[in-house]
Design brief:
By secondary structure, the chain is mainly beta. The chain has a single domain, classed as Beta Barrel (Lipocalin). It is built from 1 helix and 12 strands; from the N terminus they run αββββββββββββ. A 12-stranded antiparallel beta sheet has the order 5-8-9-10-11-12-1-2-3-4-6-7. The chain starts with a helix and ends with a strand.
Length: 150
């Protein structure tokens, strides 16, 4: 019984440590020269990720385009592996997300609309914590944004 308890305690505590090893929080600026895929007419892309509760994160994006247009979006997600609506700019989204902390410096967000996967976002933080790579896959292809921490 003690061995079983020790096994499960080690598994759960170890899993928590792995999931928390990557620090996605902070302000990240896209290095568009290192990014790939169709990034359109984006001239700057900034992410701010902050932990706002247990396994709950707010991502604020500020994007500027060649045309002069700018967008500001705030998304709150719970990283518990369950499908649920997220808050976008303070309003409940129409679609759903499955947000997961994967351990090993990565996270995965599966975005759905009407039950169909429309985007898969995988993020990885470098071992030194200075680089974040977002891989976005949709039915239109893949693009990769490389961010550097401020």
């Amino acid at each position: 019984m003690r061995k079983a308890t020790l096994f499960w305690a080690t598994l759960f505590l170890g899993g928590s440590a792995i999931a928390m090893a990557a620090d996605f929080t902070g302000t990240w600026n896209a290095n568009l020269a290192k990014s790939s895929g169709d990034i359109g007419d984006i001239v700057s892309y900034k992410l701010k990720i902050e932990e706002i509760g247990p396994r709950t994160y707010r991502t604020i994006t500020d994007v500027a385009y060649k045309s002069g247009k700018k967008t500001h979006t705030q998304v709150d997600r719970i990283y518990d592996g369950r499908e649920q609506h997220v808050l976008i700019n303070g309003k409940t989204s129409q679609g759903t997300d499955i947000s997961e902390l994967m351990g090993g410096g990565s996270r995965k967000i599966t975005m759905k609309e009407n039950g169909k996967v429309v985007e898969l976002l995988t993020s990885t933080v470098s071992d030194d914590g200075k680089t974040l790579i977002n891989r976005e896959k949709t039915d239109k292809g893949e693009r990769v944004f490389v961010y550097e921490k401020e």
